Structure formats: structure tokens, C-alpha cells
Amino acid sequence: MEMKYSEEDRYFLAKKKVGDIKGFYGNLASYIFVNAILIFVNLYTSPEYLWFFWPLLWWGIGVVFHGLRVFEVFPALGKDWEERKIKEFMEKEKWNKSKWQ
């Protein structure tokens, strides 16, 4: 099922996509910058205990999932899925209203 979008709709969808990508790169840059500082602080203050791995790991998992969502690596949960679900809920709502009237 193909959706037909107006020029304005396509513009706003593209603008949102660019914003999502920009947000991902901001998150990635923050991840690299902050973790570089944490690694330095850890190695400078207590090199016998390497705790910097924990924020590196957990925040890294978040960055990976953010990237997978933004770049639509798993399209099963992408825009097409969202559109189908929206239509499904709208049809259910329409059916429920007509059922009680």
C-alpha cells in the first residue's frame, strides 16, 4: 500500500528525517566527547580500577539503538509500520463509534 503525499508533506517528512539524523550525530558526538573525558579522569585518578567501561557500555548501547532507529535498519518498526498501525487504530475507533450509535 503506497501513501500519496503532497509536496508539503514530503518536505516536512524530509525535514523531520534530517532533524533525526542531526540529533543522532549530536548524541554520537556527546558520547565520544564525554567518554573521552571520563577515560582521562579514570586513568588519571584511579588507574587501578577501570570504571569508565560502564558508562561507555551503557550509553554506547543507547547510541547504537538510536542509530538503528534513525537509519531504519529494522524497517519492520519503521514509518510504514507506524502508518499501518495508525490506520488500524483509526479503523477500530471508527468501527467502535458506529457500533454504539
UniProtKB/TrEMBL annotation:
2TM domain segment(s): 14-91
Domain of life: Bacteria
Key words, A-Z: Kinase, Membrane, Transferase, Transmembrane, Transmembrane helix
Gene Ontology MF term list: kinase activity
Record-linked Pfam families: 2TM
Record field: transmembrane: 24-44, 56-77
Name listed for the protein in its UniProt record: Histidine kinase
Species annotation: Flavobacterium oncorhynchi
